[in-house]
Amino acid sequence: MLTALSLLAFAANSVLCRYALENGAIDPSSFTSLRLLSGTLMLIFIISLQRQTLTSVMRSKGSWFSGFMLFTYACAFSFAYQLLGAAMGALILFGAVQVTMILVSVYSGNRLHSTEWLGITLAFAGFVYLVLPGLTAPPISGLILMGSSGIAWAIYSLKGQQSSQALMDTTYNFIRTMPFVIILILLTYESAYYSYQGITLAIVSGAITSALGYIIWYRALSDLSSTQAAVVQLLVPVITAVGGIIFLSEAVTLRLFIAGALILGGILLVIIGRYYFVSFRLKP
Fold first, then answer.
1. CB-based contact 265:221 (threshold 8 Å)
2. b/e sequence 17-27, b meaning 16+ C-beta within 10 Å
3. Can you give the residue ranges of every domain in the chain?
C-alpha cells in the first residue's frame, strides 16, 4: 500500500505541474518556488511533531550539494513541462534517472552481463526513436530540460542512499534549496504570473505529493529490495500516462507507446538481468 501511494504521488507531480502550466495558471518559476517552499514547511512541521527524537539525529543535516541537485531537479522539471505532455515528460524523466544510475554503476566498476547490455541497447534505441524528427517528436529543449531533471534526481537519490536519517536529511536539503529559490525569483519576477488555482496546485505538489510522497517512499523502501525499488518506479510513467488521459485529455501516440515499451523494457532487462537471468543461468 505504501509503495502504491508513493508511486501515485510521483505520477501526480507530473500531472499537477503539467495541468497548472498548460492552463496558464502559473509560470514555471513560481510553481518551482512554491513547490519547494511548501515542501520545506511541511517537512519542518512533521519534524516538529517528533521532538523527542531530534536530539539523536541532529547530526544528520543533508548537504548543500544535495540541496542544489534537488533544486535543479525541481526547476528543470517545471520548465520542461511547459513543452512536454505529462506522459512524455515522465517517460523521459524516469528513463534518465535509471540510465544515470546504471552508468554510475558501470563507472564504479560493476561489469555488465550480456542481458544488461541488451537492455541498455533497447533503452537507447527507444530514446533515439522518441526524438526522431516528426510531428509527435518532443521539442529538443524540453528533452534536454527533463533529461537534466532526471540526472539531477538520480544524483540526489544516489547521495540519499548514504543517509541514515532520511527525514532529517530530506528536510535540510529542502531548506538548502531556499537560497536558490530566492535567486530564481529575482531573475524571473518580471515574467511571473499566478492565480489561486496555480498556487493551490503548486502547494499540493510541494506539501503533499513531494514532501509526504518522499516520506512514504522512504518508508516503503525499508520493505523493498533495491531491485524491487528500481523496477516498481518504472510504473510511474504508465500511471502518469493514465492520469494524463483522465485529467489532461492527452492522447498516447504510437511513437510514445513504442518508445516507452523499448525504454522501460530495456531498463527492466538491465535491472533484473544480473539478479535473475544470470543467477538462473548459473544454477547447476
1. no
2. bbbbbeeebbb
3. 2-282
In angstroms, the CA 122 to CA 28 distance is 33
Residue 203's nearest CA partner among 20, 5, 3 is 20
pLDDT tens-digit map of 130-150: 877 776 678 999 999 999 999
Position of cell 526522431?
132
Q: What are the b/e assignments for 244-261, b being 16+ CB within 10 Å?
A: beeebebeebebbeebbe
- Copy the grid coordinates of residue 273: 538481468
Predicted confidence (pLDDT) per residue in 161-211, tens digit:
766 777 888 899 999 999 999 999 999 999 999 999 999 999 999 999 999
Grid cell of 220 as nine digits = 516503503
Cell of 199: 498556487
Each residue of 223-243: b (16+ CB within 10 Å) or e? eeeeebbbbebbbbbbbbbbb
In terms of Cα–Cα distance, which of 66, 94, 68 is closest to 80?
Answer: 94
